[in-house]
Amino acid sequence: MKIIDGKEISNQIKLEIKKEVDQIILKGQRPPHLAAVIVGEDGASLTYVGSKVRSCRQVGFESTLVKLQSSISEEKLIEKINLLNSDKEIDGFIVQLPLPKHINEENILMAIDPNKDVDGFHPTNFGKMALNMETFIPATPFGIMELLKRYNIETSGKHTVVIGRSHIVGRPISILMNSKGKAGDSTVTVVHSRTVNLESYTKNADIIVSALGIPEFVKSDMVKSGVVIIDVGITRVKDDNSIKGYVIKGDVDFESMKSKASFITPVPGGVGPMTIAMLLKNTLLSRKISI
């Protein structure tokens, strides 16, 4: 079994991005600028956005953090988004999810200028992705594709089973792995909570991408020998023996999978670090478009 080291690959990508940013600055142009909007005081979201800001600094990006009260109205949030849309100094921005329940997430995503939608969630960008056109690809699926490419994992003609159908991971990765090109050309089956006899699909899979959010759901008896495992799940599980009071678990029972998998992403340290790296890559793309 070979561990797919997302942390190492993400650091490689950051170095590649930094080299391009250095060249932009040498030409006398401003560096890429990423903004992040966070609504409320959700601890996990604050940590995640904080890591994005630090990563921007590492690669030479400018960054802006827009912190808003959880009580902000949907109308006022859209006004803030419109200001970012029209700000020529900002190349791309994200609105950190989840949002407070009184705000319609779909309305917010639709308000973002597709040319600044570096999260890749706007229907315009999602549609371009489905048509295999250059666009902003959602960062986590983008990261998965990059891992498959850099580890030279064969996907052409393989049977990929995607567990989960969210618009953030499951649906876009199913499209990407079915598309023509490297890390694509796979025959894809999407399974989910309503799938009958889910194991009958996973046992025949050459590649499994699990984005379910249920810790250690995928066991070794559910897969065949030599399977490639991409574990997108990240769940905090209470653990009194841990200093933090919890441990991070993926969707896959990592220990039992050692004897079966040919390649596997660990949790943490697998897909997670790639998400931020690919967000930076999308921001660099948005800067190139605007030059």
pLDDT under 50 segments (min length 5)?
Answer: none
CATH topology of the largest domain: Rossmann fold
Q: How many domains make up the 3D coordinates?
A: 2
- Proportion of residues in helical segments: 25-40%
Question: Largest sheet, described in full?
Answer: 6 strands, parallel
| Measured distance between first and last alpha carbons | 44 Å
Strand order of the largest sheet: 1-11-8-7-5-6
Number of DSSP strand runs: 11
Describe the structure in your own words:
With 291 residues, the protein is of the alpha/beta class. The protein has 2 domains: 28-114, 3-Layer(aba) Sandwich (Rossmann fold); 139-272, Rossmann fold (3-Layer(aba) Sandwich), CATH 3.40.50. It is built from 10 helices and 11 strands. The protein has helices at 6-26, 43-59, 74-86, 105-111, 123-130, 139-150, 170-178, 199-202, 254-257, 271-290, and strands at residues 2-3, 33-39, 62-68, 92-95, 159-163, 187-191, 207-210, 228-231, 235-238, 246-249, 263-264. The strands form 3 sheets. It has a 6-stranded parallel β-sheet with strand order 1-11-8-7-5-6, covered by helices on one side. A 3-stranded parallel β-sheet has the order 3-2-4, covered by helices on one side. Strand 9 (235-238) and strand 10 (246-249) form a beta hairpin.
